[in-house]
Amino acid sequence: MIHLFCALPCEAEPLIQHFKLSDIKEFDLFRIYQSKDKEISLTTTGIGKLNMAAAVSYQHACLKTSAGDIWLNIGVAGHANIPLGEARLVNKITDEHDNASWYPQIIFNSPCASTNLITLDNPSTEYQDALFDMEASAFYQLAIRLGTAELIHCLKIISDNTEQNTATVNADKVKKMIAAKIQTIEKLIGCLKPLSAEIHSITAEPKHYQHFIEKWHFTKSESLQLSRLLRQWSLCLPDVDIMPLVAENKSGKTVLNTLRESINNSEFAIHD
User: How confident is the model at residue 271 (pLDDT cuts 50, 70, 90)?
Assistant: First the structure.
């Protein structure tokens, strides 16, 4: 899944329209929208770090996110001299309150330039050579606990600078700025999808796992061993039918021993 987070409704509206998202009525603490195929969600969080942190946690609980999901904080930000309307991917996030920093992992060819960002507690027009916002540090801190670093990013569109400060920003302008960068957002998602698919394949429940769990008893530790051995089996012995081999086993422990012995005796052996 792809999870989008916007602080303001005016930031979210062009994305809701473009991706054809519908409001999920059953969730009322924060507004959560989702595509018909449930592949894209968008949450409007409200302004500030506390709102963003609560919204990320709430969305995770409501939609049951997974390690291979894509997380994007999309919105407007100020900067000293980057022209209005330009997009920037964030490569460093610093929280002004405690000076803590995070470094999003950009391991792909970004569809736009990248720069650093400072998350403030309050609005400011004392611009620096950095993006200014009020949510990114909270978004990243929470998302990194729930997802995979390489799939968690912030994309900001410049809404104000030293020549045109926040007094010139209104909802209509923000909508137009976000709408103008839909293609950049699409390209960013396109860059992340192959990595997302790879992580999903690594973390997905291996073939036959549920059948084994239902047929034999495994402790928690043994369940982890089973998952690892089944993945190894699919790599080492993809053309061998596993079921006849384990059919006569009486316990989870003997199943593990049988799998381990077969894998270790295969030509392509992976040892613990």
Answer: very low
